[in-house]
Fold each of these.
Amino acid sequence: MPRPLRCNPGGTLSPEETVGREEFIAHLWQVLRGQSVYINDLRRIGKTQIMLAMRAALPLHWHAAHCDLQGFHSADEFVAGLYDLTYAHLDQWAKIKRLGSALVEEARAAEFEKVKLKSSQRTWKTWAQQIFSEVNQSMELETARQTGDTENSSGAKFVFFWDEFPFMLDNIAQREGANQAMEMLDCVRKMEAANPNIRLVLTGSIGLHHVLKELQQKGYHNSPLNRFSHEQPGPLPTAAAIELAHALLLGEQLNCAHMQPVLAQSIARSVGYVGFYIHKLIARLPRERTITRQLVETTLRNEISKLDGDWDLAHYRQRLEKYYGTEAALALCILDAVAGQQPIDFAQIKREVSGQQPELSSDRLKAVLRLLVQDHYLVATEQNCYRYYLDLIRSWWRIERQLEVQLV
């Protein structure tokens, strides 16, 4: 019997409430011993909760700071945030206070906290490089204090957990231009490579490939994250998702008595084993009625059918124009075809789509299918067929596009 939990869809969960990510987190710590990490997956999958759980249980001699970057719209704002993140940590080490005293005094004189960098002699880039250098040196000092041997020990490490990194790059490109976004990418790559005691964990709900595509059209040709391990958490493991649903049914004290294990399985499956949606669905189940599988299915359909609902699934339709440009119509046709029948192979997709795209070539279709897989709309099966990454999105898509309504 799992420990009862309360629903908290969209809220910050404690590490104890972050269920089913133990193996993935252990894997990330192993990877971080040697390289930085880029995590890309759909929104609501749990990327932020994974980072918060990691930060709450750091390995010995590791330090960390977490920041959501999507609110930054300029390079100066980013560096001001970086300064705020690190100053408290730098202040813990007497030696680094001496090494960084000029940096600190200049920052204060420039009212750095208010992003008034123009009065400083430094640029945003030199500020960022200096901050990284100071953090890296502070880790060297701690390693020396702990082991007495900085060369033969992995020693102390500092991890920056940066949420929605591609979002910030897109914001900078829109406000300050593509060249500034290119400089930011190259600066982050250079700083990560030059400071061996620092690791970055970057996340993105929009794929970095979309931002890079726009920048490449304006002359950018570098591979900024080629040193990073690319990771995808995916939905919860099946058993963990069912355990979470069971715990929430217990914690919310819903009227389902001996049916809890069966209902937990039904709930977890119906939302694609995604923790956020498990919380969301159980929070919307009526308290005054006996919970049945039919009631679960009806509640889910009602929730994702609402025009003013708060499940935020319309995002998957709305972002096509922005990120797919002239191929948005083709992407729409492909998603309609797969929503109608899955798994579906390439030849079947082409037959379905050709009615609306009569001049469609196989190469063009393959290119858009590849993008839809990269963006986690679809997955390619071992049999070279395609299906939706989350059946919940397929169910919503069928309703939104007025296809035959049938929850999977």
Amino acid sequence: TLEQALAAVTPADPRLVVVAHSMGGNILYDVLTHFRPDIQVDAFFTVGSQVAFFEELKLFRSSDAALPSPQAGKAPKPANIRHWINVYDLSDMFAFAAGQVFDGAQDFEFNTRKGLILSHTSYFSTPSFHERFSVRLGGLFT
């Protein structure tokens, strides 16, 4: 699917925007940082994802054991990702903020208002999520 999205980039529609939920964020991060670092992503949205947690556990092929640390700072945002927006709900036990682990990742809290059990699967079924997504995406390229 990532290859299909890349092939669909045209001069009339030149931006590659990737949205990943939950484990999809981890998979895409690993793909973009190890397997396909040649793919340039204009906007990488992780939603309810564990990328920062996995990085702290050093589970990615590109993980650096020295980062993040008080001495060396945060792990860098991958060079092939122009903008990274990470969305999480404090009620979602599977969602983690990324900005404290990755330099350049922007965190946005979103309250699905669904509670502990349903929050993780409720982002995309909430109309206000799509409204805020549109505003965030539009703000990246103006």
Amino acid sequence: MRFRLGFLGAWSLFIIGVILAAAVAGAEWQNWKDVERLRKLDTIDRMIAERRATRRDVLKEAEEERGARVERLRSAVHEADVKVDDAQDTRQAIVVSTAENRLYVRRGGKTVFKAVCSTGKGTTLVQAGKTMVFETPTGKFRVVSKEENPIWVPPDWHFVEEARKKKKVVVRLHPGDVIDAATGEPVSEKESEGVWGLFRGSKRVSGHFLKVRKNTVVEVGADGSERELPPGKMIETGRAIVVPPSGSPQRRFDKVLGKYRLNIGSGYGIHGTLATDQLGRSVSHGCVRLGDADMEKVFEMAQVGDQVLIY
């Protein structure tokens, strides 16, 4: 009996020891978890502090930029006031504020008409090592000509921009060139004829080709038939935007500039736009855009020789 009691007592002490050890281990585990949680909280607090500091720096820079922009606008407005005062002796002047995207017609020192417009977006495009900046030029100009139903002949940069938007390459089609209508890949005259129209070496081609015929772009079918491509419409193949020759009908876009345009020289002008939802914003490639109704009124009032002040 005494042995049994001693055994039971030892076993009880062992169980109690195990329980105490488990409790201690549990407490240590909980402490470790608490320490890890605190470390994570410290990390989160540090990240929040860093982000706040970064945001403060960004806001400070933005505020400084706004302040600088306000000063530039004040200087521009003051300069424009001087220019407008200089123009008061003229019979009529067209004044464009690129900061406000507003156009004014002044006569005898008074504003007789005003409208919302769009001006240059200020972005750049690098092409063949040449950097182009799409800004509306500032300074004094003259209305050199008035044009009804103007035709737009887009420069090369228009095709480059479209190709980049659609992640395609640019292929220029010159007289004497032949390209695959499906891929934009150049092919030879021999490859575009007869059975050669089915294969290009070991590479299969579409059998339809684009070429210049008498200064217009035509599509040649597998049977040799030709179809002239419509004017003023972007030519796209599977992987390329095709740039037609400068004098071809496919390079002439109708109704893009509205019904009226006032030319002020160096390729710049004041004209209508199809993108009326963008009026009031700096989105053009340099010209001043107006809604059709406003452009018609300005066109009626303007005379060749009128001064144009852009600031």
Amino acid sequence: MRPVADFPSGERRAVQAVLTDIDDTLTSDGSLTGRAYTSLERLQRAGLIVVPVTGRPAGWCDMIARFWPVDAVIGENGAFYFRHDRASRRMIRRYAKSPSARVEDRARLAHLSERITRAIPGAAVSADQAYRESDLAIDHCEDVPALPAQDIDRIVTMFEASGATAKISSIHVNGWFGSYDKLAMTRLLLHEIFGISMDQARRRIVFIGDSPNDAPMFGFFPNAVGVANVLLHRDRLMAEPAWVTEGSGGDGFAELADLLLAAR
């Protein structure tokens, strides 16, 4: 990882889309700061496509797509994308799985949540679980005392033993049934809504994130960026971003936005 200040100005100028994680990338200490939110707005007003790519639930993503200065949002680690068409006042919702499959998955995940929380003292179902459609989020440090690394690994093992995919974020372990992830749904969104081939445009797209569940994005985009706190998770990253900001969380996101806008 190299300092984001070394990101060549010519490549910064060519960026047409900014994809961003939310927790501990846009947020700082659990809060969305004015500086980070304003940076989203500045990027969009400058003509860039702005898309949060998050593990947060469908209920939150509906609000984000409607009210934030963004062009769409990908949620639950790639289970769907939402785009609010303001001209027609219509929400476009695209899911990786069918409604019946999602109902079946939720029943299986409900049983798994009981097993995990019984087996691992201190683990809890996330406070936002009621607003989820496709995955199960186990809280390892958001609203509970931080779990030790070995317990986080046990949660992942229990998900995988049941046939689920599991990813670790800075606050949750998310599990779901299916092979989709943030990268796969980003590919669909860019093609279906914006007519962009992700393979052809990969150098003109920046993803910024902070944690292990962002690794598929870090590995694919040559100009992926990590906020400074990504270094806390370096031993768990399957792929690293090319660049790293000086600031953590929302300050790091704003730092990247300033650099992209200055190049334009």
